[in-house]
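Here is a typical protein record:
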Amino acid sequence: MSRPSLPTPCTVARHSASAIALAWAIALACTLAVTLTGSGAAAQIPTLPDSVEQAIVGVLIDDSDGRPIPAASVTLLRGPSTLSTVTTDDEGRFRMPVPLPGFYRLGASRIGYVPTESQLLEIETGVILTVEYRILPDAILMEPILVTARSDQGRSIFEDRRQEWGRGLYLTPEMVDSINPRHHPGEVFRGQEDVWLSWGTARVSSG
């Protein structure tokens, strides 16, 4: 079953590789200044990253009330293929590395929500794409559950009478099954205290 399109498009923001490189350049310049003007103390010079990778970061939100959705599965889709899956944290946040530039979709699923796919997202080289991903809640149709119970009310009445009279016998269905009468139901009383059995035959004539 195909997943529905996202009811509300992802809100996206892009952070390019040039911005990241600029941040590293500023950090490097500040460190060099400290080294040149300091009192001879050694300072560690940060190194530029070997490669800038692209990724999608974001938060998964319940579109009905705006709350973040924790413990949900977010998948990276390209065409019919699922490339990777991550789980949202307690605040609904996730980070999805993207192997190559191109067009991708995000899928989201969790019990109690409609499985959803986002619109196409273009991922450029070295770009960190920030998204706000909204999905709708869904009612869950569960299999019917049959609960059965046996009432002991009738047994308690007979037990009270037996205690009052000081004698009596109460046979449960389990006791009858264990005795297993073969010829006549009255056999369940055979050997019971204060019980006398009398067997006889009767002839029934017609006309």
Strands lie at 11-15, 54-62, 73-78, 81-87, 93-98, 102-109, 116-117, 121-123, 128-135.
